[in-house]
Design a protein that fits this description.
five-stranded antiparallel sheet, 26% helix, single chain, alpha+beta, three-stranded antiparallel sheet, globular, 3 helices, 13 strands
């Protein structure tokens, strides 16, 4: 069940609030599709919602509500000199073959040791590689990160990442990339 500030899945009685929600998509085989959404539930465990059971636009309201609630706070933090960090892991083997409980445990461990993307008002960083907003064209959509030089030179291509809070990341990149 979707609410403006969170959601409840199945028989859960406690709401998973958007403001502190950590989630990512497992990309599907077709463009702009996903196999599952993994999220950190209110109790700290990672759970998943199979994406193959739903039409591709079924989660648009959830994604819009998350951005609507988290974007203003994140932008204010960045504009005041802070940063926002996003964990990411590159796609690897099919983790769904492990079984539901093992998959959720593995995803929690993977996200804890994941690489980081950092966004500030001056730059976008992947681990220790810094790309200044005014020197690069940066885009991030649906877990695909692209960094190009202003001359069109390809610098970084990271396709189908499992990125924590991908919709907020996309909104921040779009906003800060346009300001350059």
């Amino acid at each position: 069940y979707l609410y403006e500030d969170g959601f409840v899945v199945g028989k859960e009685t406690e709401k998973n609030e958007y403001k502190n929600l950590h989630y990512f998509f497992i990309p599907g085989t077709m463009p702009n599709t996903f196999m599952a959404i993994f999220y950190e539930a209110f109790d700290g465990s990672y759970r998943n919602i199979p994406g193959t059971l739903y039409p591709t636009n079924a989660f648009q309201l959830l994604q819009q509500d998350i951005v609507k609630l988290t974007f203003p706070t994140a932008m204010e933090n960045i504009e005041q000199g802070g940063s926002e960090e996003f964990s990411f892991i590159a796609p690897k083997k099919n983790v769904f073959a492990l079984g539901k409980k093992k998959v959720e445990e593995k995803m929690k461990k993977e996200m804890e040791k994941a690489d980081k993307i950092k966004i500030t008002k001056d730059y976008f960083a992947i681990e220790d590689e810094i790309y200044n907003w005014n020197e690069h064209k940066i885009s991030g959509k649906f877990g695909n990160i692209v960094v190009d030089g202003l001359d069109g030179r390809k610098i970084v291509r990271l396709p189908k990442l499992r990125v924590d809070r991908p919709n907020l990341l996309e909104a921040l990149i779009g906003n800060l990339g346009e300001k350059k």
